Amino acid sequence: MAEYLVRSGHKILAQVGQTQVQDSYRFFYKRLWTLDLPSKNKIMVWRSSRNYLPNYSNLHYRRIMGTATCRRCQEEAKTMEHLFRNCAVVKETWERLDMGWVVSEENTDFIEWLKSFLGTHFLGMCRKFVCALWGIWTFRNKFIHEGERCSGAQIAGFVTNYLKELDGLKESLPATRIQRARWVAPLENED
């Protein structure tokens, strides 16, 4: 009698091409996790790629909220596409970051949009893109939980300053660690 192991099950799925992480996502995840950004930025984008963010559309679907309409613009349901691409404030944010062209793919599924962007742009642009997504999400939360309204220009300024601060941290850290002399207990005098 053969013993079932998770390893053997994964091996069979891999042979028929049905692993949990499909090949189309491999490059996306690899690219995302190699970006020189704090984990909180990358985890937020990973959560959005899995549709795990608590946007109004998801909360409405789970019957937690009554309406899925965006509270900021009152125009359409707050889906991932609206939250990160279609909302007027978000469009202004992308424009101010000199990335207005990223919203031109309005009919593209959000996850496909993420995979496409990270798969076709150099790492510096991907870093700015991911940081912008995180900034948009952060200011969305400030609006929802603290009532703080921000313009797209303010969000773009925050993202730009955040990236400068991260770059400044790299420059200000010493290349080698400074060794300090350790305290040594005095020798006991023998009488």
- Rounded to the nearest angstrom, the distance between the terminal CA atoms is 78 Å
Largest sheet: none
Helix content: 55-70%
Mean pLDDT: 80
- What's the helix-strand series? HHHHHHHHH
Low-confidence stretches: none
Count of discrete domains? 1
Number of DSSP helical runs: 9
Q: What structural class do you assign from the helix and strand content? A: mainly alpha
Rg over alpha carbons = 23 Å
Give me the count of strands.
Answer: 0
Strand content: under 5%
What is the overall shape?
extended
Domain Reverse transcriptase zinc-binding: 25-94
Pfam families: zf-RVT
Protein name: Reverse transcriptase zinc-binding domain-containing protein
Task: Give a brief outline of the structure.
This protein has 191 residues and is mainly α. It has 9 helices and no strands.
Task: Describe this structure as you would to a colleague.
It is built from 9 helices and no strands. The chain is an all-alpha fold and 191 residues long. It is extended and about 85 Å long. The protein has helices spanning 6-15, 23-34, 39-49, 56-61, 80-86, 88-96, 110-120, 123-146, 152-172. It comes from Gossypium stocksii. InterPro entries: RVT-Znf (IPR026960). It holds the Pfam family zf-RVT.
